[in-house]
Amino acid sequence: MVEAFRSQPTTVFIANGEVVTFDAGVTSFAKLQKRMQVAHPSPDLRRRVPVWLYLFDLLYVDRYDVRQISLRCRKQLLRQAFHFRDSLRFTEHRETEGEAYYKEACRRGWEGVIAKDGDGVYVSGRTRAWLKLKCTHEQEFVIGGYTDPRGGRVGFGALLVGVYERGRLVYAGKVGTGFDHTTLQRLGKQLAQLETTTSPFFGDGLPQRGVHWVKPKLVAQVGFTEWTSEGKLRHPRFVGLREDKAPKEVVKEG
Q1: What confidence tens digit (pLDDT) does each residue in 187-211 have?
Q2: Domain range 2-134, its CATH number among 3.30.1360.170, 3.40.50.720, 3.30.470.30, 3.90.1280.20
Q3: pTM of this prediction?
Q4: Quick one: which of 28, 165, 190, 227 has the most CB atoms within 10 Å?
Q5: CATH class of domain segment(s) 137-249
Q6: Which residues of 83-96 are buried (b: 16+ CB within 10 A; e: fewer)?
Q7: Among the listed residues 180, 171, 167, 175, the one whose alpha carbon sits nearest the alpha carbon of residue 236
């Protein structure tokens, strides 16, 4: 990636971009973690986990602050400022049929899309001028425990969930978002009635502090972006309880 900038016509600039790697044609954060915090990757690591830098905005170029011109114009300047080749890539965009493109992204298994105001100037921080529209996967998970609530939260902090593999309940991670106040109270009471002294999960990596184990009787529907390489959920979100699903039937899908 450093080499990609050495022969560029533009040498003084500030740009926005994202480093990515791919797994079966889809960006993978789990795979990218193998390159994080590695200042001098070995040739083998560079071969196994190649990375690309996708630039998507330009803030400053050749002594000019361009943040006050439209995003559409900034991207035109960005395209002209660099030779995009090898590990340096230009982030393409489209200006029509955004909803159809989002559905196509989800069908392809992408993490999601970013929607931005093409006429907007650059503003630091999150604004309504750009939106992150995520594609999430969903499936059932068995609840095997929960953590204590913190601050002003009631009921519980997060659910500890898993799936069955070869008759054993394998831990898949913590689900701490997607609950409203009523759900926290109602589900918290259900969990308290199912408490037990031993963990129903098989394997290691379980949280140890502020944990309550429960009998694996409840099934939750959970949305998430992907499975990590360690077999844990990324960005899980509670959707609801599945009273129509028997816990023993819950396995990893896909």
Answers
A1: 999 999 999 999 999 977 898 889 9
A2: 3.30.470.30
A3: 0.63
A4: 28
A5: mainly beta
A6: ebeebbbebebeee
A7: 175
